[in-house]
Structure formats: C-alpha cells, structure tokens
Specification:
The protein is an all-alpha fold. The chain is built from 9 helices and 2 strands. The model is unreliable at about 1-10 and about 50-75 (pLDDT under 50).
Length: about 270
C-alpha cells in the first residue's frame, strides 16, 4: 500500500479509513489462504518424498532407499513452484511486495528455507515439515492481524457514530438565534456545549490510548503503529483524532459566540 497526497475534507476521513480497513482485511485474508494452501502442498510433497525414499520390496537383487539426482532436484523445484502458485500468486503481490522468491521466503518464512530453495538442496521429509510449519505460522499471523483490523474497524464505527451524534446536537444548537435567548437560556446552552466538549475529549483520549497500544511489525519496515500502516493514503494517520479536533474547534467557536452574547447582557 503506497502513500499518496490527499486534500480530503476532514469530515470524510473516517469513512475512507473504514474503506481502507476493509481493503486490508481482504488482502490479509487472501494471504492467509495462500500460506495455508502452500503448507498443504508442501505437506503433500513430504508424503510423496517419504513414499519415494522407502526401500523397495524385492525378492531378488539389491534394493536402494535413495532418490536419483533428477528426482531430488525436481522435489526442491516443486516447493518453489508451490510457493509461486500460492503465496506469490495473490493479486496484490507485485504491487505490495514485488520481491523475488528467495527474498520473500527469507522474510516470510526464514533465511534458512530461502537458502535451501535457492541452492537446490536435496528435498527431505524434515525440510517439507519445517517449511510447512513456518507457513502455518505465517498463516496464524495473518489470522491474528485480521482480528486486529476487525477490532480497528469496529472502533472506527463507534467513534464515527458518537461524533455524528455530537455534531448533530451541535448543529441543532447553532440554529438558535443567541441574541433572542435569555441569560438563563444562554447558560443552559453553555452547559450543553460543555457536555459535548467532554464527550468529544473522551473519544479523543480513548483513541490516543489505542494508537499507542497497538503496534504491528511490518516485516523489514520494523514496528509501527497500526494507524500509521493502515492510513498511509489519507491526509492524516489518525482519522478519529483529526475529526475530534475539528469537532472541538466547532464547539469552541460556539462557546465563543455564547460568551459574546452573555457579555452583552451584563
């Protein structure tokens, strides 16, 4: 996912953030399935290798338990081909990664497996099982990341709903003509604005705590906050905080108008 400039209105940031979460959820799900399929294929190769290396049962003549060189080379090639047809075949691979097989295997599984595949090391049952286990780990990581994205999406929806309610209440108050309000009515308006401000600041505080609490390790890029990773295309990496700031600005402007009206009555 690449960053790009944006001149979005702050009011549209959270909906766009939810769209980005949904896109990331789909990509992560596809990668999870790809690693699951790779693990299955490699496990099947392990079974084939075991059968191929079993001693021949013969009544006459010597028996052998080794694969000839061509069969061994083909076995390692099969693992590479399985990786290409699963992990490297997801639709977004070239755009997001664009890495050669060895480089991607090194980052997603480990350098040892990458070296084995790159150097045509003989295929063994242990190698297949090891590669399959690492693929399952990558699959599990994607599953956990899916849950993180789902939780983030739900958090966005809750914040958006609460901020919408605050904005609606603020709009209703702004249609009143302050000059026609009594002193007591203006005091009541001030109290209502205070309440809206408290609610907005509570959303902002909860979101700040969430921002610092969730850090993801995006391979070679190192650990970064979830929001920094997900919201690169947005004009801000913190959409809820941006909307809270905008809402607070509107509330403070309304309070300033109330103060002006109050002072005229003193």
């Amino acid at each position: 996912m690449s960053s790009r400039d944006s001149d979005q209105d702050i009011d549209g940031v959270i909906p766009h953030a939810r769209e980005l979460c949904q896109e990331e959820l789909t990509l992560t799900h596809n990668e999870k399935q790809a690693f699951e399929e790779f693990a299955t294929r490699v496990q099947e190769l392990s079974t084939t290798s075991t059968r191929s290396t079993a001693p021949a049962q013969a009544t006459t003549g010597p028996s052998t338990s080794t694969l000839d060189p061509v069969q061994i080379a083909d076995g390692t090639s099969d693992v590479r081909e399985a990786y290409r047809k699963t992990v490297m075949s997801v639709s977004h691979y070239e755009e997001m990664y664009g890495e050669a097989l060895a480089e991607n295997v090194s980052k997603e599984l480990n350098p040892e497996i990458a070296a084995v595949l790159e150097n045509d090391t003989p295929l063994t049952q242990e190698l297949c099982q090891y590669a399959s286990a690492l693929a399952h780990e990558a699959q599990t990581q994607r599953e956990q990341f899916k849950e993180t994205i789902i939780n983030e999406t739900q958090s966005l929806e809750i914040a958006e709903e609460e901020l919408h309610a605050i904005e609606s209440a603020l709009e209703e108050m702004n249609v009143r003509i302050l000059s026609e309000q009594s002193y007591i009515e203006l005091e009541r308006v001030w109290e209502q604005l205070d309440e809206l401000q408290d609610r907005t600041e509570a959303i902002s505080k909860e979101r700040q705590e969430r921002v610092h609490a969730i850090v993801v390790d995006m391979r070679s890029n190192g650990p970064i906050t979830l929001q920094t990773y997900l919201y690169q295309p947005l004009s801000t990496s913190f959409p809820v905080l941006a909307e809270c700031t905008d809402t607070l600005r509107k509330i403070l402007m309304a309070k300033s108008s109330v103060i002006d009206s109050l002072t005229r009555r003193v």
